[in-house]
Amino acid sequence: MEFKDFWTKKTLAGLGLGQLLSLLITSTGFTSSELARKGINVPTSQSFLNYVLLMVVYGSIMLYRRKALKAKWYYYIVLGLVDVEGNFLVVKAYQYTSLTSVMLLDCWTIPAVILLTWIFLHTKYRWKKISGVAICVAGLVMVVFSDVHSADRSGGSNPRKGDLLVIAGATLYAISNVSEEYLVKNADRVELMAFLGLFGAIISAIQISVFERNELKAIHWSAGAAVPFLGFAVAMFLFYSCVPILLKINGSTMLNLSLLTSDMWSVLIRIFAYQEKVDWMYYVAFGAVVIGLICYSWGDKDQPEGGKKASDEGSGTLDEEAGSGNNNRGALR
Question: The whole model's pTM is what?
């Protein structure tokens, strides 16, 4: 393989967009931490506002376009349920197990995504992509077992319960990612976001009324609490809006590999913003994840407008909007 094979629009767009999504996830982590420091612990309520934004923005576009649905509406109910509960289970796990365990077990999303895309989307993973996945995961393992997390490894009030919650949540993440990849390639991105927002908001509202109603009543809202709360919702809205684009370009495996760098971005922010010192293994781990991402995406060819995907990428499904001759890469230009 020649070096010029790396400089394709598809590869560079996938790497760049993947790190933008990773930074957005990092920003949600910082806003959540700020809310936690203020004693506000309402994760489902935070997600609810994101789903409302998706419903309003993309629902308005759908109404303006007045196009027939390309997928059955009840598919989106299942997707909304899986997405909401995946977020809920992983956040809930922090009450019982350590951050280290969550970081490690959350990696289960990657092999689960690979298995599901291989079974249902017929994605072919060659040795180059498998090696890229292995390097990325090895980089994260280096982070987890560095000195930074040494005191955290035995934490948690009920580690077994917390670990099971993380594995269940990671599995739901995988199902959600693969489902979105299938829908964005066979249906319509705007339709996907509108209905995910609609049913996600409904399911979240029900869950809030059961689990978080009392916590919301006890919150004393001020600018210091409202700003990070709204910041979280905006970051999540941008994240959800960009995810289908990356799924269409590179698939759900690339998405989950890119998000491995979110913890490392948070460390770099702490270094420069708060002058904190971290273990040297963080830098090595960050480099390993970057190398793994390059190995995974190296040589991906740009696809012609309205064409099928290459055999190395997947199932040869129809383009999102083949009837109009457009594809998602146009959104990145």
Answer: 0.77
